[in-house]
Amino acid sequence: MASAGRGVTAPGNSLGRSRPRYGETAVKVLLLAAALVSIATTVGIVGALIEPTIKFFGEVSVFEFFASTDWAPLFSPPAFGVIPVVTNTLIITLIAILVAVPLGLAAAIYLSEYATARVRKALKPILEVLAGIPTVALGFFALTLVSPFVRSWWPFPMEAKNGLVAGLIVGMMIIPIVASLSEDAMSAVPGGLREGAYALGSSRMIVSLRVVFPAALSGIIAAVILAISRAAGETMIVVIAAGSNPTFTVNPGKEMPTMASFIAQAGSGDLPVGSIAYDTIFAVGSLLFALTFAMNFISARFVRRFREVYE
Amino acid sequence: MSSQPHVTIHQPEVPRNLAALDPVFTVQGLDVFYGDYKAVRDVDLTIGRKEITAMIGPSGCGKSTVLRCFNRMNDLIPGARIDGKILYHDEDLYGDHVDPIEVRRRIGMVFQKPNPFPKSIYDNIAYGPRVNGHKRGDLDSVVERALTQAALWDEVKDKLKASALSLSGGQQQRLCIARAIAVQPEVILMDEPCSALDPIATTKIEDLMQELAKDYTIVIVTHNMQQAARVSDRTAFFTAEVDEAGVRHGRLVEFDETNRIFTNPADKRTEDYITGRFG
Ligand SMILES: Nc1ncnc2c1ncn2[C@@H]1O[C@H](COP(=O)(O)OP(=O)(O)O)[C@@H](O)[C@H]1O
Ligand SMILES: [Mg+2]
């Protein structure tokens, strides 16, 4: 059957396929199915979000949702200004990135350019294990150990659950993502470029920062984008360490529930299906999805414009 | 192949006085190790100032290994080390006080595969001066001078901001030569600089080498005997030999004026190699 179109009518010494390769076809179908599952999941998520979101905006005006700074969807009377949880998400993500990018990149440069092969072989798996620590454990670590410590140093009033500590620990969580993927990108830079740079009298630091780093930039930015997405969507650490009382503030010493932590907290309560509070969860979910998607899209274009292509 | 070496012998218009060899490098009893493996054994060699010295020999005989000792490039390979001595002028190149980074500023290198940075043509040339603390002011003229010396200026002067990777292979290699020149080294080491290039690009690089030899000391590794014959003043012939313990080491067989190596070699192995009976 597979050979029907190939004209393998000539016997024996034909170059045509001698027998159909069913195994290969089966593998191809399986791989395609696997690829389709992830696409189908994405489509399914969007589909599931759309309907309740539309219903939500039937009852709450778009203007109130995006322009009001009062967020209390589960109280009565309810308030649906989403701005505080959006800004909280941005602030916690920003704190996390400020922690993770310098530390993660330093680790990546060390592993890729300074460490001997043996040290690298020992350290990289440890880094990847770090990425596997359950975030619920990190959340309690934040609340019980880090928060009291930070509060004792912080010069301003600080609540026990606060955005700063949550942001710091989310940052810790994403260090392995930044470090590991950036290290991959830097290790992939051809050795010839390094040799060329060393041969011009560059120190190791100069080679790392002026040749390897720019050449690996597109991969590094991809790593940072992935880390940002993970930070913006991080739930458990924020639920445990950032509290649930949303005020519109930029003070990270306050409680700072985010979009994701709101979804988790509201979703784990017993809201009646179809109620406006229930639909709020989906509206916030849609917004989080859209923001993450937009960020990925914009940064992908940004990367294409600024990367240094080495062949 | 015929038994006669059908190679053209390079005749400089004004023959340099090769008798008066003014040493830049003096290699004495050099062994080079990769870990426990002695890749090169007991090499004695002198590189003359503003001459072109060619290193030829079959693949794996240690030509690159020796070349990369001259700018301490082998320091970057874990486990690589040397025994013996290399003098740069009168200074021990491997002395305790010597900074390999400073060495590489004085002794430039061009590689087999052109390796321009994925930056603009301008930034490639400016890289060396910049990392060596060159003041911003006259960088443009440094770039122009280096590109002119590398016979590339006319081809690229209108697209200095274009990516170096948009150039052809031969242009990329001349760019790499210009990049090396821009830090004003005394010596330029070249490791098979033409082996990835077509014949026309190769001719351009060979002409360029002749031109550069007026100002620079050049050491070139090549597996192409004709090229060694065409461009070099002196030739070092290496080969790999198996010692009593059965281990292969690179050895220097013969070192002499190129002219003599190709017309009247002293060693039978050299003669066999250049006449194509071996290698
Ligand atoms: N980085 C290295 N590690 C271990 N052995 C090496 C390394 N580089 C070269 N060698 C060995 O040293 C010998 C000489 O190599 P090389 O100098 O590259 O020869 P050539 O340039 O003459 O072809 C070869 O046997 C090669 O396998
Ligand atoms: Mg070689």
From TrEMBL, chain A:
Source species of the chain: Bailinhaonella thermotolerans
Protein's name in the database: Phosphate transport system permease protein
Keywords, sorted A to Z: Cell membrane, Membrane, Phosphate transport, Transmembrane, Transmembrane helix, Transport
Membrane topology label: Multi-pass membrane protein
Origin: domain of life: Bacteria
An annotated GO cellular component: plasma membrane
Gene that produces this protein: pstC
Annotated NCBIfam families: phosphate_pstC
TM region(s), chain numbering: 29-50, 90-111, 123-143, 163-186, 207-228, 276-298
Pfam families for this protein: BPD_transp_1
Domain ABC transmembrane type-1: 86-299
Similarity annotation: Belongs to the binding-protein-dependent transport system permease family. CysTW subfamily.
Gene Ontology terms, MF aspect: phosphate transmembrane transporter activity
Subcellular compartments: Cell membrane; Membrane
Listed GO biological process terms: phosphate ion transport
PROSITE patterns: ABC_TM1
Functional note: Part of the binding-protein-dependent transport system for phosphate; probably responsible for the translocation of the substrate across the membrane.
